[in-house]
């Protein structure tokens, strides 16, 4: 599928991860590069060390030149997503009339959970999982029910069945906040797994809200399966955007997509929610999905190279760290328990090695003794980071 998009552009892109120097990156003023002192290599938050894809940059500069910085309007973003989904995933599911624009994926998750649950209701998560799942859900006065991943970092259907029974057993409404592909493990859920999830949810009356922000970030040869494309998922809701794949976190815009049986729920979304997205963000995300295929293909190849590089470096210099390269996201989940660094090895690597990783403790049950590393940087910085980490525990 990805080759089709690359061929349409007629361009072969260079690896975006190899185009910016450390000096150039340190001129950035975003969270990744300004949270820690300059002697720290930041490989933590999911920002990518890449220049903007040319179609995205052109869309932004054209808007600025026109003064086109008002309120968002129209369905171009949803149409671009539908065409991208058709080409990349052979999915005709995101019908434009069953979409709504939201400020970003996590705020969209909040709005979808408000539609299908009430205060005090339960939200099931597969831990270890993206820390804002816990933060946002609890801030909404919902209860978290954990369904831990299995030892293979895949969905444990028995654990999920038990969690669904506990979440919905009292007759209250319940939801399952699915992370697909999974952050932090990089697991890409299969058609069989998601089909089983949908059947379980249907059986227990649990509504599924899928965070699919990393959907385009899947290694060559692997297949992302949209949750709403599987049997029994008609009542599901999905959140998608171009944010992670094209590094657009600062350009706020995402889409909520409803399954056929959830269209009525989405229609209840308060009108003021559509005021939150940035018009320039909508233009950028639309350009990425419509015209950024060749750039994305180059990125995905670069990320796959980095996965192999990290595995080789760890095997040579830190063999006690367990790392299994996974095909999804730009993130690496490191099991550091054999190093004996306690619950938070990221703190040790920061203090002794001046490398910033994400602490595994924030990801819920299963996160202790782990750290998350962002692979979306140059091979040179990954190499230097592992050298520093090894020196920190020598």
UniProtKB/TrEMBL annotation:
Cofactor: pyridoxal 5'-phosphate
UniProt keywords, alphabetically: Aminotransferase, Lyase, Pyridoxal phosphate, Transferase
EC supergroup of this enzyme: lyase
Domain Aminotransferase class I/classII large: 76-388
EC number: 4.4.1.13
InterPro entries per the UniProt record, alphabetical: Aminotransferase_I/II_large (IPR004839), Class-II_PLP-Dep_Aminotrans (IPR051798), PyrdxlP-dep_Trfase (IPR015424), PyrdxlP-dep_Trfase_major (IPR015421), PyrdxlP-dep_Trfase_small (IPR015422)
Pfam families linked to this entry: Aminotran_1_2 (PF00155)
Gene Ontology terms for molecular function: cysteine-S-conjugate beta-lyase activity; pyridoxal phosphate binding; transaminase activity
Sequence similarity: Belongs to the class-II pyridoxal-phosphate-dependent aminotransferase family. MalY/PatB cystathionine beta-lyase subfamily.
Protein name: cysteine-S-conjugate beta-lyase
